[in-house]
Specification:
Alpha-D-Glucose-1,6-Bisphosphate, Chain A, domain 4, 163 residues, alpha+beta, 3 helices, two-stranded antiparallel ribbon
Length: 163
C-alpha cells in the first residue's frame, strides 16, 4: 500500500470554466479575496490586512468536516484586466508551500477562468500527518480539492452571470 502522503511529487491541480461575462466583471468578483469563503467549500474566511497587491499577506481559516486549520497566504501575482483581455491573481499558501492561481482570458464573448494549485513539491511532517489522519490521504484530498475548485468556479460563474 502506498504511503498516505507522499513526501513529494503530488501533481498540479486544475479546473476551468467559461463565464458569460466580461473579464472585468469576473475580475471584480474574483479580486475580492475576502469573498472567497462564499464560493470555496474549504475556505471559511480570509483575513487580509490591506487592499490586495503583490506582497499582501493574510491568514485563512479552512475547514473539512470537523477539522479546522489556519494557513498563511501571500499574494504573488496581481494583474487586473488589461488591453490584452487577460487578468490574473495568485497567492502562496503555507505550510503546504503551494501557489493557488486564477487566470482570466477573454474568449468567445465571455471569460475563460482557470484555477490551479501548483504541484506540492515536498510536504513537511506536520502536513503529511495532518493529511493522513484528517484528510484521508493526499491523493484523496487532491480529488476533493479539484471538486472544490469546480464548485468554486461554478459559484463564481453564477455570481458573474447574475449581474
Amino acid at each position: 500500500m502506498p504511503p498516505a502522503f507522499p513526501s513529494s511529487g503530488l501533481p498540479q491541480l486544475e479546473a476551468e470554466i467559461h463565464v458569460d461575462a466580461s473579464v472585468e466583471a469576473v475580475w471584480s468578483l474574483l479580486s475580492d479575496l475576502r469573498a472567497m469563503s462564499s464560493r470555496s467549500p474549504e475556505t471559511v474566511r480570509m483575513f487580509i490586512s490591506d487592499a490586495p497587491q503583490v506582497g499582501t499577506k493574510g491568514i485563512n481559516v479552512n475547514r473539512k468536516g470537523a477539522v479546522v486549520w489556519p494557513t498563511t497566504t501571500k499574494v504573488t501575482r496581481w494583474k487586473p484586466p488589461s488591453d490584452d483581455g487577460t487578468a490574473a491573481l495568485a497567492f502562496w499558501v503555507g505550510p503546504t508551500n503551494v501557489e493557488w492561481s486564477y487566470e482570466l482570458s477573454s474568449v468567445d464573448g465571455g471569460t475563460r477562468v482557470v484555477e490551479r494549485r501548483s504541484p506540492l513539491r515536498r510536504a513537511n511532517l506536520s502536513v503529511r500527518l495532518a493529511s493522513k489522519w484528517f484528510m484521508g490521504g493526499a491523493e484523496n484530498h487532491d480529488v476533493e480539492l479539484v471538486d472544490g475548485m469546480r464548485r468554486t468556479l461554478a459559484a463564481l460563474k453564477a455570481d458573474a452571470e447574475r449581474r
